[in-house]
Amino acid sequence: MMLDRETKPLPSDEIKFSLPEIEKFKLENELEVFFINKSKLPIIQLNLIVNAGSVFDANDKKGLSNLYSMTVDEGAGNYSSLELSDEFETLGTHFNVSSSEDHIYFSLQSLKENFERSLELLSMVIISPHLEEKDFLREQRKIITRLLQQQDEPDEIADLVFEYNVFGKSNPYAFPVIGYEDSVENISLEDIKKFHSSFIFPNNSALIVVGDITKDELQKSLNNYFKGWKSKTAVTEISFPQIPNKKNIFLVDKKGSVQSEIRIGHISTKRKDNDYFPKLILNTILGGQFTSRINLNLREKKGYTYGAHSRFNYLKDCANFYITTSVASENTANAVKEIFNELNEIRNGVTPDELEFAKSSLIRKFPSNFETYKQIASNLIGTVIHSLPEDYFNTYIENVSKITIEEVNSAAEKYILPNESIIVIVGSKEILNEQLSEIENVAVTEVDFRGDKVS
Amino acid sequence: MDLLNIEYEKYNLKNGLEVVLFRDSSLPLVASNIWYKVGSANERKGKTGIAHLFEHMMFQGSKNVPKEMHFKYIQEAGGSLNGSTSFDRTNYYEKVPSNFLELILWLESDRMGYFIPALTQEKLDNQISVVRNERLERYDNQPYGLAWELIISNLYQNGHPYSWPTIGFLQDITSYTIEDVTEFFKTYYSPSNACLVIAGDFDNSKTKELIEKYFGNISTDKKVNHLKNYRPYLNENVFLSREDNVQLERIYLTWHSEKAYGEYDAALDILSDILSGSKSSRLYKNLVFEKEVAQDVTAYQFSGKLSGFFTIIATAKPGVKLDLLKEEILKELNKLKSDGVTEKELIKSKNGIKSSFIYSMQNIDSLADQINSYNFFLNEPNSFNFDLKRFEEVENDKLKSTVEKYFSKPFVELQIIPQSGDEIKKANNL
Fold first, then answer.
1. Model ipTM value
2. What is the mean pLDDT of chain A?
3. Quick one: three-class SS letters along B68-120?
C-alpha cells in the first residue's frame, strides 16, 4: 500500500482520562486543607497560601509583604538562618517563601521519606520564626539593591508602568509587590513582626497537598505539627476602586535601548464574574497561543517580533487584559498599529473554524494540566483563590464545549476595548519620538520608571 | 534505585534512524523527542547561527504541511511543541494526547524527508527577521546580555567550534540564502543523523509499524561532516573590561574544565553546588550573606560533547570593587584546594542531587529529552542510575584534586561596568 502523506492522520480511539479526586478537610485549628493523593512517584508537594499579599501594604510601606516573605525563613525554632536552610537542603527538600499581590506562599516539594521532617521545619517557620534585626536588615538591603537592578530590565519596567496606570493610584493593585526604594526603607522590623501576627494564621490560609501519602497520615501529621498555630479574627476588608482607562501612550525613556517593550490593554472583569469561558476561548483565538491571530501577524507575517501574546490577567479582586511584546525600535509604531488592527478586527467576530480550533485545543489539552505534582497543586490553588465551584474540573470540558460563536463574539465586543486601552512603551525616546507622533488620535505622555508623569 | 531503572527498546530503521521507545501509561499522553546531531559547533566562523535559524525553518511547514499548520495541527490536538539548539545538537519535541501519536509522526517525518519542496524566500526572510528580534530581545537589549559571547570567544581559540554563540552574529544571520539552508539540510538532516524517542502511553507493535510507515522510506543519501576535535587551550589569563547599560558591576571568571560525562564532570557539578547552590554554600555565605559585598553569586559547570567550562559570576553591591570579589572567590578556591569540603557539605549536595533525579521523572516530555541526551552522550538510554552513581561516588579527595587540576590554570576574567558619562553607547559596541 502506498503511503498517503498528503492527508493528515486522524486520531485513534478517544482517550480515557479520570480526574484525581479532591478531598477537603479542616484541621483542629480551622486550617482548610485540599488534598489529592498521587502515588506515581514518592513525592509530596505542599503549598500554604496565606491571604496576605501586597494589596494590604500601606502607602508609605509598599513592599512590606514581600520583605516579610524574605525575612520569615531567616531562622526559626531551634535553627539560625543558615542552619535552617541546611536542614532543608540535607533532606533534598525544595522550600520557598514568596509573595504576590494577593498572597504569601510557603511551598515545599519533598520526597515521601523526608516529608514528616520537612513539615516539622515548615511548622517552625510559620509558628516560631526568629525575625531578627540583623537578618531583617540584610534582606532589606538586598531588596534596595534589587530595586536598583530593576532599572536595567525593560520588561519589568513595562509591567510596573502598565499596572500603575491601568489600575490607577487609588487601587492597591497599582503598586509593585517589591515596593519602592523609599517605602522599603521606611519598613521596620516592628512592621514585619506586626505583619506576622496580623496575617499569618490558620483561618486566613489554605493548605494544598498533592502527593504520595494517605489522607489519614497527612491529617495526623498536620494536626501534630500545627497544633500550636491558632486562628484569629479575620483580616479587615480593603476596597479596590477602579477608574475607566483612557487611550494614551505612556512613554518611558530608557536610553540606549535597541528594542521597545510594549504593553497595551485595559481593566477587565473578575475571574468569578460571568463570561469566563467565552473570554478564555476569545483569548485563545486572539493571542493566547503561538497560532493566535496576534502572534501570526506580528511574528510570522510581519517579522516584527520574536513573540506577541495577550491574556486576561485575573487577580483575586480585579483583572486586566493586555498584550505584551517587544520589537526592534524602528518597528515600534508599526507594531502598535498592527495590534490595534487586531483588537478592532476581533470585535467584528471570529470564524466557526477558529471557534472549533480553540475549543479542540483547550479540551484536548486538559489532561496534560494534571501531569506534575506542582501542576496539580497549582490547579487547586486557582480554584481556592477564586472560590471556584467544587465541580470546576469535572465540568470544565462541558463548559468549554457549550460556548457558542454568539457568546464569543459578544465577549469580543464587551471585553476587548481598543478605545479604552492604554499603551506603555519602554524604549529610546530619541528613536521613538517621530514614529509615535504618527499614531493618530493618541496623546503621548512621558513617564518615569514608576509610571508618574515627567514634568 | 528501581525508580530510575527504565525499560526501553532501541533499534534502527534501515535508513539509519535510531529509535528508542519508552512506555509509561500512567496518563493518556505521548511525547515525541528527536535529536539531530548538529548544533552551532558544526558551523564555521563567518557563517554562525545557521543551525539555530534552521531550527526556526523546520516550523515553517514541509511538502504536505502548509506554513503555520505544523503548529496549528498540534495545538488543535491539545499538544505542546518546540525545539532548541545548542552547541552539540538540535532537538524538536511534542507532547499530545496519546490518540494523536500518528499525527506527530506524520509531521516529524514530513519535515525530515520533505522539507526542501516547501522552502521559500519569503519564509526565510520572515524567520531571519524573527531571529534578529530574538537576538535583540534575549541578548542585545538584556543587561549583561553580551557577556557570554565575549567570554567564549576569548576562552576558546579562534576557530574552535564553541567560540561563537548559538544564536549567531547578526551580520551572519542576515546573510543566509535559500542555497545555504538547502545545503545545511542536505548535510545534517538525514535519518542516519537523528534519534527519535517516543515516550508515554502507546501500543508497542502498532507504534513500530507507524514509525516504519512514516520514516522508513526517507532516504539517507547524505554524508555528515564529523567535527574535528579541537583541543581547547588558554595559555595565559585574559582580562576583559566592558561597559554596559547597567547599574551594578559584575565579574565573570571562566576556566576550561571537563567535557560531559568526563572523569571530573560530576565532581565539578558538586563543586558548583558547594560554592553557590544554597544559602550556606561557600561563596553565597561569604559574599552575599556575611560580608554583603555581592548581590548574587553563581558558579556552574557547563559540559558539552567537545569540552566544558566552569564559570563563577558575582554582581557587586553598589560601591564594591570587583577586584575585591575576585580576591574573595580565589581565596575560597584555594581553601578548597588545601582543606577540601566537610562531610556535611558533601552529603547535603549529594542528597539534593538524588532528590532532583526523582523530581525530574514527573514530566513525560522531559524524560524523553533526558533519554535522548543519555543516548547521545553515552549511547545508553537507560543511564539514570549510572548518572546518579557518578555523583554518589565523588569523595573529598576527588574534589580536592579537581580544584587542583582545573583552577590552577589560566582563566578568562570579564568585568562588566556601568557606562560612564552622559553619552550612552550602543550595547553593540561592547
1. 0.95
2. 96
3. CHHHHHHHHCCCEEEEEECCCCEEEEEEEEHHHHHHHHHHHHHHHHCCHHHCC
